[in-house]
Amino acid sequence: MSTEPEQYDVVVLGGGPTGENVADRTRAAGLSTAVVESELVGGECSYWACMPSKALLRPAAALAGARAVAGSREAVRGPLDAAAVLARRDSFASHWKDDGQVSWLESIGAVLVRGEGRLEGPRQVLVRTPDGGERRLTARHAVALCTGTRAVLPSGVPGLAEARPWTSREATSSPTVPARLVVVGGGVVGVEMAAAWQALGSRVTLLVRGAGLLPRMEPFAGELVAAGLSAAGVDVRFGASVTGLRRADGVVAVSLADGGELTAEEVLYATGRAPRTEALGLASVGLTDGDWLAVDDSCAVRGVDGGWLFAVGDVNHRALLTHQGKYQGRIAGAAITALAQGRPLETAAWGPHAATADTAGAPQVVFTEPEAASVGLTAEGARRAGRRVRVVDYELGSIAGASLQADDYRGRARIVVDEDRGHLVGATFVGPAVGELLHAATVAVVGEVPLARLWHAVPAYPTVSEIWLRLLEAYRDSAPAE
Ligand SMILES: Cc1cc2nc3c(=O)[nH]c(=O)nc-3n(C[C@H](O)[C@H](O)[C@H](O)COP(=O)(O)OP(=O)(O)OC[C@H]3O[C@@H](n4cnc5c(N)ncnc54)[C@H](O)[C@@H]3O)c2cc1C
Ligand SMILES: NC(=O)c1ccc[n+]([C@@H]2O[C@H](COP(=O)([O-])OP(=O)(O)OC[C@H]3O[C@@H](n4cnc5c(N)ncnc54)[C@H](O)[C@@H]3O)[C@@H](O)[C@H]2O)c1
């Protein structure tokens, strides 16, 4: 329980996927690095987000895949074995123990400091340890804030706190299947968790205040995912707002603005995220406690002099995705290393110290049935950014590989082509198992591969990837953008 400052080259606050990647890069460059973690090394993603949620969803996709093909359909004898799915989920969440990730941190030579860290002025970090003690850490070169986000509950909804709603944490870790589940919010967490729990046997109602799902994707993605959820038995309601909740006798009564009422064993609020910055000591370095941390492309925090403070991953609000946080971690780690070695940063677009892909080519897969996968800009986003684009759509079910994959394959693909630059700036695929199609599109967008060259990237027959050929043909035969 020492209060003597410990000196490190780099101090990382938050040992989620982002913080781990910063530490990996700074350790690889020989910089001494401490990682401060208040809960579990591995962060939200490993225990209450990506891994457990995908472990809940994968069996439903496997079952749907078997049911979609004559021959294997007849071999399906019943519903999912929920107990087996939950046990497999527990194993993917490492039973909420972080020994494996702690061993990895040790293997790269980083020092793990358990406790809650906060800034106490430039380069100074105070850690409150679980035993009630304090440790003071000083960073010679950089502090990286990688503290992620937490779920947000709306304010002013009567009875919400007393109803003890699920957030993403309970939705990904529940040991039992509620008989009925109301899900509030039509973003990614809402649709994925509605799909998972319906497949596990809950009767799910999804309440969406707007007119569509997945508002950050092309509109057809939300439409096809809504159709898939409805076909699976989810009661999807648009324009639906909750006016109050009441929990009694193990059941929550949910009152709706249209005068209706729903009852369910659990209610999940999937209504967005807030940064974990309210107790980070931001005011001690001239920033505002509780804010998202605005950064430049190398993830250096704006408004802080001296190039010592970085904010990486969800907490900077650039792209709330594990793979983008890890990418930023690699880039910020390289930037911290360059500065520590007295080298200038190379921050031009697509340079080694610029997280350009966050805005130009971040991929995302929504693991519902059908899946929705997108990269880069939507058609509307590209037009809003002032680009002259041509948009080409194609029905995935018309591809030979897709009809082999499922007897009644339904899905759609879209590419958004920048007419002045002659390459893709966005692509979206919706359909069963399209997530694995996405990386080709990411390479095309990030590599700015000219369409003329894409004609030479021949998709193997009969794979679903033949969609690429059909999209190119449809582009060739369509009218140029105005
Ligand atoms: C239900 C759900 C499913 C998701 N599924 C996917 C998916 O399939 N694919 C995908 O790419 N993304 C997914 N995401 C998003 C993904 O979880 C995040 O983008 C990712 O976890 C961000 O990583 P991070 O390291 O920035 O933050 P986090 O993972 O949140 O890690 C931050 C860490 O910092 C620690 N911490 C916080 N404050 C302090 C402090 N003061 N001192 C010390 N430690 C502190 C926390 O304990 C935590 O361990 C999902 C999110 C949710 C909610
Ligand atoms: N497969 C994946 O990649 C994956 C899975 C889950 C989460 N994530 C990431 O995690 C982040 C958080 O996801 P999320 O779904 O929690 O947030 P989100 O911001 O994507 O969606 C929240 C939704 O809730 C709605 N909402 C907000 N307040 C509301 C209210 N009071 N009543 C009703 N609806 C309300 C919003 O309109 C929005 O549609 C996302 O940015 C996403 O990228 C990714």
Automatic annotation (TrEMBL):
A matching Pfam family: Pyr_redox_2
Recorded superkingdom: Bacteria
Keyword Disulfide bond among record annotations: no
Required cofactor names: FAD
All copies of domain Pyridine nucleotide-disulphide oxidoreductase dimerisation, residue ranges: 363-468
Keyword terms: FAD, Flavoprotein, NAD
KW Metal-binding (keyword) present: no
Domain FAD/NAD(P)-binding: 8-325
Family statement: Belongs to the class-I pyridine nucleotide-disulfide oxidoreductase family.
Protein name: NAD(P)/FAD-dependent oxidoreductase
